[in-house]
Amino acid sequence: MTMQQISEELNFPSQSFFGKFFKRSAGLSPFEYRKS
């Protein structure tokens, strides 16, 4: 699943908002999380 699909599925207003929320919650960006 792409980050765009995930953000839409979770009803975030934008992909960037989801990315900021994810980083604040997980301590990593979605890209960094996926690489780990």
Question: Concise description?
Answer:
The chain has helices spanning 3-9, 15-26, 30-35.
Please estimate the helix content: 55-70%
C-alpha-based Rg, rounded: 9 Å
Please state the structural category.
mainly alpha
Strand content: under 5%
Count, helices: 3
Basic shape: globular
| Largest sheet composition | none
Could you walk me through the main structural features you see in this protein, from its secondary elements to its overall organization?
- The protein has 36 residues and is an all-alpha fold.
- The chain has one domain (3-35).
- It contains three helices and no strands.
- Helix 1 (3-9) packs across helix 2.
- The mean pLDDT is 95.
Structure keywords:
36 residues; single chain
Write the layout of secondary structure elements.
Layout lengths: L2 H7 L5 H12 L3 H6 L1
